[in-house]
Design a protein that fits this description.
Helix content: 40-55%
Order of helices and strands: HHHEEEHEHEEEH
Oligomer: single chain
Number of strands: 7
Number of helices: 6
Strand content: 15-25%
Strand order of the largest sheet: 2-1-5-4-3-6-7
Shape: elongated
CATH architecture of the largest domain: 3-Layer(aba) Sandwich
Mean pLDDT: 89
Structural class: alpha/beta
């Protein structure tokens, strides 16, 4: 009994860490509850040269990222089939795509990946969100340092949100944020 009383904090902390490690969905829910989408990076707008990325379409026609500027919000996600956190957030991206594709242009760029692996991943999981592979250099202002990295850009290229980790993109807070900025 004395052992339990003296080490209760460590036992609880170890239990919490184990739950977060074994159940990534719990980690995503906690992160969404504790750190909701709120901060807009007002001062940062990507320049035209930052958006000049030639994209080879995997399940959509090929295009250039700059062609999306001016119409709708842009959901720009850098991911890879080799990246466990990227794979973890994909179901929530697909759900967001299904519900918001009329308000948002989705551009999901597979990085450091083979086209065959991306096609297999998309087919095996029945994902339909637009996926591309970059065919030209990406500037340092956009190039991700970690995976996944997601930008939500307004129609002028201003960064409304940048997330350098996996996230539940189908959460209530994300939907409310999008609805507020698309009014």
């Amino acid at each position: 009994m004395t052992f339990l009383r003296k080490n209760l904090f460590y036992i609880i902390a170890t239990g919490i860490i184990a739950i977060l490690y074994l159940f990534p969905s719990v980690k995503l829910k906690l992160k969404d509850m504790l750190f909701p989408v709120a901060a807009i990076e007002n001062a940062i707008t990507l320049k035209d040269e930052d958006l000049d990325i030639q994209l080879k379409g995997i399940n959509v026609p090929s295009t250039n990222l700059k062609n999306f500027k001016g119409d709708k919000l842009i959901f720009l996600n850098f991911w890879g089939t080799w990246c466990p956190p990227c794979r973890e957030e994909w179901p929530t991206i697909q759900k967001l795509y299904d519900s918001k594709k009329q308000k948002i242009d989705f551009v999901l760029i597979a990085m450091q990946d083979e086209e065959a692996a991306v096609l297999k991943f998309m087919k095996d999981n029945q994902y339909t969100a637009p996926v591309y592979i970059a065919q030209s250099p990406i500037t340092n202002n956009v190039l991700p340092k970690v995976f996944p990295t997601t930008f939500l850009l307004d129609k002028n290229g201003r960064i409304l949100l940048k997330e350098d980790a996996s996230k539940d993109w189908n959460s209530k807070s994300v939907h409310e944020f999008i609805d507020n900025v698309t009014k």
